[in-house]
Amino acid sequence: MTAPQKPSWLCAHGAAWSRGEARVIYDNPWIRVTEYAAVAPTGRPATYGLVSHKNLAIAVLPLFDDGMTVLVGQHRFAMDEYSWEIPEGGGPQGEDPLASARRELAEETGLQAAEWLEVLRVQLSNSVSDERAIGYIALGLSPAEEPHCADETEAITLARVPFAEAFEAAMAGQLEDVLTVAMLLKAYHMAAKGLLAPALARVMLR
Questions:
Q1: What is the reported pTM?
Q2: Under DSSP, is residue 190 helix (H, G, I), strand (E, B) or coil?
Q3: Is the separation of the CB atoms in 50 and 129 below 8 Å?
C-alpha cells in the first residue's frame, strides 16, 4: 500500500521542549518513569514526568473470509473494568514487530494467518508516554500449527463476531480500547475504499 504524499502543513514545526536533568522515579521490566527538569516551548521551566515503555504495542485484527473477526475479553487492571478488544500484546523493542504479531495472534486466539497487512502506526498517549503501536490485519486464517501458551497472568475469553457488529459496537462507545477502535475504523475505511479484496469488503460492510 503506497503512502500518500505528505501535505505541506505536516512538514511545519514550531518550538520544541528542552530536556534537562533526568531522574528515574520507578523502573520495572515493562515501564520506566522518569522525571525531567524541562523547559516548555514557551520558555517556561517545568517538571515533566515521562512513562517509557520497554515493549512495542502490537494489535492484530483477524478477518475471516466470511467477514467475521475474533475479539478477546479480559479484565484490565488499570481501568478495573472488563474489556473486549482485538488481540493485542507487547513485542520487545528489538524484535521484528511482525514476529510479535504472529505470536500474539497464536497465543490469544490459537490462529495463524497466511497474509499480514501492516495498516497502522500510532502514538498511544503522547502527552505522558512514549508508547508506540503497530497494527496488522491478519488474513487467510487457520488453526495454529504449533500450540502457544497464553501469558500466565491472562484469563481471556474469545468471541467470534461479525466485523460489522464489532464496528457498530465501537462506534456506539461499547468498545473503548483505543487500538481496537482505531483498527476497526482503519479496516472499515480500507473496505469502503476498495483496499481489501472485494468479496471480503462486501461482507464486512453489509
A1: 0.94
A2: helix
A3: yes
Separation CA 65–CA 206 (nearest Å): 14
List, for residues 90-136, the tens digit of each pLDDT value.
999 989 999 999 999 999 999 999 999 999 999 999 999 999 999 99
**Grid coordinates given for 121:** 502506526
Calculate the alpha carbon distances from 92 to 58, 71, 89, 97, 100 in Å. Answer: 10, 23, 10, 8, 8
pLDDT, residue 72, reads 97
pLDDT at 147 (0 to 100): 61
Q: What sign has the CA pseudo-torsion 30, 36, 40, 44?
A: positive
| pLDDT beyond 60 at 1 | no
Give me 199's grid cell: 468479496
Contact 106, 31 (CB under 8 A): no
- For residue 96, how many C-alpha atoms fall within 13 Å in the half-sphere facing its CB? 5
The answer to whether the CB of 61 falls within 8 A of the CB of 70 is: no
Mean pLDDT of the chain: 95
Q: How far is CA 159 from CA 4, 72, 108, 193, in A?
A: 35, 7, 11, 27
Q: Alpha-carbon distance 191 to 185, whole Å?
A: 10
Higher pLDDT, 5 or 53: 53
Calculate the CA 115 to chain-centre distance: 18
Q: Where are the alpha helices (DSSP H) in 38-195?
A: 97-109, 163-171, 178-192
41, 134, 138 from 98: Cα distances, Å: 37, 9, 11
Backbone angles phi, psi at 78, to 5 degrees: -60, -40
